[in-house]
Amino acid sequence: MKSIIAILAIVLLLLQYRVWFGDGSYIEHQALQANIDELSERNAELASINALLASEVEAIRSGGQPLEAIARRELGMIKPGETLVLIITEREFQHEPR
User: Which conformational region is residue 76 in: left (phi greater than 0), alpha (psi within -120 to 50 degrees), or beta?
Assistant: First the structure.
């Protein structure tokens, strides 16, 4: 009887080892779940950025002021006769590559 209990205990330990450390183990599952959570957060951030860009594209397609504002802000474009004045903060100046 003692030998049967000992064999069952060994089988139980082997099964527990697989549950905790084998392929598809609890630890591996937890790591994958953490990765899924991180990627879900990143996906939500990218979705909000995508929605913002989509609204910006829609504003540009409808014409008018946003296209001109974007060209001025991001490309530094100016109209003939205008003078471009860039205001660079000290922080931006320190991060500029030379």
Answer: left
What is the CA angle 47-61-48, rounded to 5?
Answer: 10
Q: How far is CA 73 from CA 57, 81, 94, in A?
A: 16, 18, 20
Q: How many C-beta atoms lie closer than 10 Å to residue 6's C-beta? A: 10
81: region left, alpha or beta (phi > 0 left; psi from -120 to 50 alpha): left
Indicate whether 31 pLDDT > 60: yes
pLDDT in tens, 49-78: 999 999 888 877 887 667 778 788 888 888
C-alpha dist (Å) from residue 81 to 26, 32, 65, 77, 78 = 69, 59, 19, 12, 8
Question: Nearest Cα to 76, choosing from 86, 66, 64?
Answer: 86
Task: Give the residue carrying structure tokens 């000992």.
Answer: 6
